[in-house]
Structure formats: C-alpha cells, structure tokens
Amino acid sequence: MTQLLSVHVAKAGGSSLLRLFQQAYGDALLPDYAENPADPLSPRVLDPARYAARQGTFPPGIACIHGHFHPAKYVITRDTLLATILRHPVENIISIYFFWKTLAKGHDRLHDYFIDQNLTLLETARLPLLRNLFSKTYFEGFDMRRFNLIGRHDNRASTLRRLGALTGRNFAAGLHENPTASSPARDQAKADPVLRRQLEDILAEDIRFYERFAH
Facing residues of 65 across strands? Predict the structure, then answer.
C-alpha cells in the first residue's frame, strides 16, 4: 500500500490540507503535531541525533501521516510518498508574525518568548528557528531529492492536482487557504519595499532553499 508522509510547514496551507486529508483518508489519517521542530523544547531541537535514530513507522491501517515534524522522524520506504508545501519565506514570516500576534500565551515556548519580548517583525525573522525555518528547522540534513512533491503555496491548485495524481485520492474539494485576518498593519508590512528588502536579507538562506526546491 502506498503511504503518504506529508510535512506541514507553519503557515503554508497545511491546515487546509489536513482537512482535505481528513476527507480523503478518514480513519487512515494520522495527524502528528506532538513534536513541532520549531518548538525550542521539541526532541528535534534538544536531541537531534536521538530524534533521527528512533525513526518511527506507519502504524497498521494508516495510509497518511501529516503534521509538524522533520522527515527524518519516520522510516521512508519505496512505498512512501513524501510531500510538503512551501511558501515564500518573506510571505511566510509575515503570516507567522501577524498570526502569532492574535494568539494568547501558552501556544509554545517560542511564541511565549515572542509575546514576552514584544518582538518586532524583523526581530521575529531573526529568531534562528524561524530565520532558517526550511533550511534547518524542518529539513536540515535531509536529501530534498527524496521528496515526490514540494509544492508552492501560491500555486495550490497545481499542487493538489499533482498530489492527487501521485496518491490516487480525490482532492476535488480544493485547497483553501486558512488566512491570518487582514489588518492595516499587515497590509502595510506586505506593501513596504524597504521592509521587504530587510526581510530578504535576513531570510536569504531560506529564500535560496525555496527557489531551489519548491515548484
């Protein structure tokens, strides 16, 4: 049986994709959000060698695992399809920042720090776990050529068609973004060319990663 391992990178449409997987896979779906690699206290951060060494397998009856994890968490066989969706790092950090501004403390330790320190957007982008969200936090040391699909958030329709062709599942419901509510401050940040250049400088490594692998 073909099995799908789907890495949900924060604010890249993964929550909407989870709902589609729930419809398509039903009880054969296993959501995995217990060990977010962007949480400073996650096993991936605290003990990456042990995290990779204790690789898990698909439980009986499970055809799809989707969630926040580094792909090294699981054994990948010839029957495993590997997929993820990435968003341009500048758009991604803006979305994370304004989404985090709406959350109360207690989400995770990194978000608690963000709230306690009242970080600006640029300060948030410089946090190591977010500055290198793709190139280190979620995928460091992993051969990205092993992925069957690395879609782009801004081209979700094409991503869904390709994913449906790979899995033989029906995703006709479409992938709808789960957007952070718009606000004047967010719209201003997105439209500010100086701020964008500053973010591009901070996120240069992840931008190179995105441009190399996402399509």
Answer: 5, 30
Q: How much is the pLDDT for 157? A: 87
Domain ranges of the chain: 3-213
Q: Are 190 and 98 in contact (CB under 8 A)?
A: no
- Taking the chain (215 residues) in consecutive chunks of 10 residues, what is each chunk's mean pLDDT? 93 89 95 95 93 92 97 94 97 96 92 97 98 98 97 91 92 57 86 97 98 97
Q: Can you tell me the distance from the alpha carbon of 156 to that of 3, in angstroms, rounded to the nearest whole number?
A: 21
Nearest-angstrom CA–CA distance, 151 and 144: 12
pTM over 0.90: yes
Phi/psi for 59 (5° steps) reads -65, 155
Two tokens, residue 208: 């190179």
Label each residue of 120-159 as H, E or C: CHHHHHHCHHHHCHHHHHHCCCCCHHHCCEEEEHHHHHHH
Please state, in angstroms and as integers, the Cα–Cα distance from residue 20 to each residue in 23, 87, 176, following that order.
Answer: 5, 19, 10
Into which CATH architecture does domain 3-213 fall?
A: 3-Layer(aba) Sandwich (3.40)
- pLDDT computed for residue 163 by the predictor: 93
